[in-house]
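Hi P.,

Sorry for the delay on this. The queue was packed all week, but I finally got your sequence through. Input first:
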Amino acid sequence: MNHRICLTALAVALFAAPSGCNRSAEQERRFRDPWAERRAEVQRRLAEREAAENLAGPAPRLTWDKREIDFAELHSEGVGEQSLTISNTGDAPLELTQTAGSAGRIQVDPAEASVAPGEQIQLTLRRPASGGEGPFSETIELQTNDPRVPTLQLAASGVVLRRLTVMPPQIELPRIRSDEPAETIAFVVSDIWESFQLTDGETTLEGAAWTVEPAEPSELKLLGAKSGYLVTFTAPAGMQHGIYRHSLSFTATLPGGEPQRIETPVSCKVLRKVAVYGDGIDKDGVIRLGVLPVGKKHFRRFTVKIYDEDRNVGDVTISTKPEFLQARLAPRATAKGNVYSLEVTVPADAPEKVCRGATEGQVSVDFGRADLEPLTLGVEFTTHWFHEDDLL
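Then the structure:
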């Protein structure tokens, strides 16, 4: 009985006594009521609004005619203008100041103003179109001395019309093979001109070709353009493996206007001429055979494709690591004659061995052609004696 009384007293003391490990009263309140903090914030805001509505002395009162400013369409060399009417329905002067850097490229005129009670002022908002084409969205902030609206935020939007542009802005051929040409399309369009001529095309990519034809009305509508051309760009066959960065340029001429040059980047990624496919090989070119019992032959076949106009692989030399690993490359009967079988074998008499990737296990195929890069594959496996106890 005495022990129970002592334990009860100790528990009461622990809950009653303040401690660094105990929650504070505020923390306990939040734990019991997770919405308490949110309600307190709402009550604070209501109190501020009530205080502002019941000001003891005279105060300004701001009203305005629009919260969203639509500049609509701007020509690339013009300046868009919109107006905003600010009224003071209070009984004290209203002071306005544009917050520095709040409006992006939009200028408010005047940037500072004072509006007498019962009066109104018209602000002019100007947005230059230079500096970028396409849609834009910005926010204008005006600081006021109205306690009800200390900061007036206005959303401004519009679009700077493209005088001349390429869509997409870069011609890309991300994954092409060297055994055949690769083709992609782009549009050269104008949001302003009803028509223009596109001539004198040039590219820095040797062997590339292109065609130019007027874009269909449905294509122009989809692009939101008034006029334009469809450009079909073709990268040549026979390109070596690697990344290419070039350009394509044209001369655009507006009827009765000065010709101007337009240029767009061209990028190509040419994949290797030799590719390997099959179960058990990962994206890094590592063959994973797993754990193999010693005394049993293990065989895996993969498909090798040659992506080149010349299908001949020449005199092939194959080396392996470790030396007991065996590999053979044999042609398959296909219409194109560019498919081979790569057979990888761990023989039955292989010793116990742990091979990790390209450092300890490897199959290297050197082709008898200088323009075909050697094929190097990592091989991962473990050969292990399995005793009867291991199989129980």
